[in-house]
Each structure stands twice: as C-alpha cells, then as structure tokens.
Specification:
Helix content is 25%, strand content 36%. It starts with a helix and ends in an 8-residue tail after the last strand. The chain is of the alpha+beta class. Strand 7 and strand 8 form a beta hairpin. It has two domains: 111 residues, no CATH class; 281 residues, TolB, C-terminal domain (Neuraminidase). It is elongated.
Length: 407
C-alpha cells in the first residue's frame, strides 16, 4: 500500500519537474527563435524592424513566459495522468479544466500588463482653474488639447500646424495660449493662439531656437528661453511683447542647465527660478557675471541626487512651490512641497504615491498633476488621473480626463 502511495507521489513530482522544464525551456527557445529570425530577416530584408530588432528576443521570451502559465500546468497534468493510467475521459476532462483555469490566469496577467500607448502630459492650468492644457504624444506628433476641469472633457485646439507642440501656457485672463512648436523636434518656434486655437500664428517673425514660453503675471509680456545651438544648450532668457515687435534679452549667462520646466520670474521681474533635474536655483536678473545659486534646504527622505519637477514662486514671492521625489514604502513617491525662502523651512502639501506633470498657474493659486496606477508585475503605467489643487487652501480634487482614443 505504502509503495503505491509513494509511486503516485513520485509520478506527480515527476510531472511537476517536466512542467518546470517546459516552462524554463519555452522562453529560451523563443529567445533563440527570435535571434534566428532577426538574422534571417537581416539577410533577406523581409520587414523593417527598426529599434524592435534589439528587443525582439526579449519580447518573444516574455510572451513565451506568459504562455508557460498555461503550458506548464498542462504538461504536469498530461504527464501525471498518463503515468497514473487515468481513463481517457478523466484525462480529457482534466486537460480541459486545467486549460480553462490557467488560460484565465494567463489572460488576467497579460491584460494586467498592458501599458499606455499614447503619452499624455500636462502643460498648464489657467489662473481660475477652469481649463488645463495637455499634449498628447504619439510616435510622429504631439498635439495640444484643452481640458475642461469641471468634467474632464478634452478637445483638440484647431488650426495648429501638424508637428510637435510643447510648453504651453495660459495668459492671466485665460483668453490666449502661447506654446512652442516644432516640425522636427529640433527647431522650435513660439506660437500664440486664442482659447479655441483658431488663430494660431508665430509670435516672432524672426528668432532663434525658442522654447519654454511663459506669460508675465500682468499678461503684457511673454518670457522664453532661446539657444543659438540646440545641440549643446547654452540658454538665455528673453522677453517679447504680445505682438512680437519688441524682443529683449534679459540674461547673458549662456546657462547650461538641463531644464525640467520653464524658468519662472518673480512678480517684480528681478529673480529667475530654475528647475533642473536635481537642483532648484535662483538667479538675479540684474547680475552680470553671477551664476545661479542653489536653493538649499532639508527635505525628509529625499533621493540622492534629488529629483524635482516644476518649481514656481508662491503668490507673494516669499516661497517656492515644487514637486519632489522621496523614498516611500513602495518605491518613489512624488509630492508637492513649499519652502519658505527666508527660513528654508519645508512644508509637505500632498500625500500621493507616484505622481508627475506638476504644473502651477501663473498667479500660483492653482496647480495640477497626474497620479498613476501601474500594472501588476512589470509596473508599467496603466492609467492616470488628474488632480486639481488649490494652493490657497491645499484642497485636491480628482478629475478624470476624457482624452480621445488613439486611432
């Protein structure tokens, strides 16, 4: 009796070992198959793989691992059932049951790993908080959309030339929009339009490579960054009238900072706030030879090096509002903070997990950002929700964005 039980246990274990072997060998075989296909395709020129060629082996192996969720249990069952001499009816019924259960599991895993294919980035929020600008980036373009913050409905701005649209901003009265436009992602031109996007035109008849446009707080001037050499940086800050007829250079420093957002001027126009990837810096416009001074303060659980997003002066210019990454219990957390420029004391304003696209209105009364949900295993970005924040009282309200589907 004991030998029979031992034999059956061994059969089940043997089937389990066979299943493990199948699960291990399947992605290896898929990886090798992909390499062979890439080599033959390179010789035969069947299809243009582009950058996918470098990742094809990993892609094949990944989906073979998904298939292993079904193949492994099926191998275990078939090997075990055959060696246990089960009837054909029991064998087939068990095979169908195992396939159904683990096919459902595989489908649950695969659907849970589907990431976002079109990338949405917030660009600006109006001073009254009624509208938000967002760019929808696809493989060959980036279009600008206006989002109604009351219902999340997004509508495209019309008459804007095809290409790539970035760095948009609202005028203080919310009636005009300025943005940076490019046809090749290299040379950028400043454009201005109305709230519906029906009268888009170039702001400056002549200029350099211009980006990061922002309206002044009184709405009479547009500040922007210009570089003569887009490959090597060396930026300076300029100002232009709304009709584009008057342009003046405000700095002569050839900054080589790697901007994470537009440089922001204080309300009196005397100071500029720079947001680099790992630092916040202040610069006096009246200075002739000085460099930006790092804004030093203590941030609990900050990363090293630090990671910042979109710093902005507070409404009274006495503080700086920003988003920063910190170490959290489940990974990086991005939250909104404010630092007092006199005392350098920091106050945390939000408590969200992973967030991005922090943008502040021109008068520093409103802010928006995205909070994210990720896939179950690979942690791919699956969905996001916009958060509308009132910086005067600290309230945060979620807004579901109804963006158009990718064609």
């Amino acid at each position: 009796m004991s030998s029979t039980i031992f034999r059956r246990i061994w059969i089940v274990v043997y089937g389990l070992l066979a299943a493990i072997a199948a699960v291990v060998l399947l992605p290896i075989a898929a990886f090798v198959l992909a390499l062979v296909f890439v080599w033959i395709n390179h010789v035969a020129h069947w299809v243009e793989l582009g950058e996918t060629q470098a990742w094809l082996g990993i892609i094949f192996a990944l989906y073979a691992m998904y298939a292993g969720i079904v193949v492994g249990p099926l191998v275990w069952w078939r090997v075990s059932a055959n060696r246990l001499n089960l009837t054909r009816k029991a064998n087939n019924f068990g095979t169908l049951a195992v396939f159904a259960v683990f096919a459902f599991v595989a489908l649950w895993v695969v659907l849970g790993e589907q990431g976002i294919t079109a990338s949405t980035h917030l660009e600006a929020v109006s001073d009254d908080g009624k509208f938000v600008l967002a760019s929808l980036t696809r493989s060959d373009s980036a279009a600008l959309y206006k989002i109604d913050a009351s219902n999340g409905h997004a509508s495209p701005l019309t008459s804007i030339p095809a290409g790539y649209v970035y760095d948009a901003d609202f005028s203080p009265d919310g009636k005009q929009i300025v943005f940076s436009h490019s046809t090749n992602e290299k040379n950028h031109t400043l454009m201005i339009t109305d709230l519906e996007g029906k009268s888009a035109h170039a702001l400056l008849p002549d200029g350099g490579n211009d980006s990061w446009p922002r309206f002044s707080r009184d709405g009479n001037t547009i500040y922007f960054v210009r570089t003569a050499d887009p490959c090597c940086g060396h930026y300076d800050l300029f100002a232009a009238s709304l009709d584009g007829k008057t342009v003046s250079q405000l700095t002569h420093q050839s900054f080589d900072l790697s901007f994470r957002s537009a440089p922001v001027l204080s309300s009196d126009g005397k100071r500029v706030l720079f947001t680099a990837e790992d630092s916040l810096s202040l610069f006096s416009v009246s200075g002739s030879t000085q460099r930006p001074d790092d804004l030093a303060f203590f941030l609990p659980n900050a990363l090293s090096p630090r990671m910042y997003q979109s710093a902005h002066f507070s409404s009274d210019d006495k503080g700086v509002v920003f988003m920063a990454a910190t170490e959290g219990k489940d990974g990086y957390e991005y939250n909104v903070y404010i630092v007092d420029l006199a005392s350098r004391q920091v106050k945390k304003l939000t408590n969200h997990g992973y967030a991005s696209d922090f943008r502040v209105s021109g008068d520093s009364s409103k802010a928006v950002f995205l909070t994210w949900k990720f896939s179950r295993f690979q942690k791919l970005p699956r969905s996001f929700q916009m958060q509308l924040m009132d910086l005067r009282n600290g309230t945060v309200a979620p807004v579901h964005i109804d963006m158009p589907k990718q064609p």
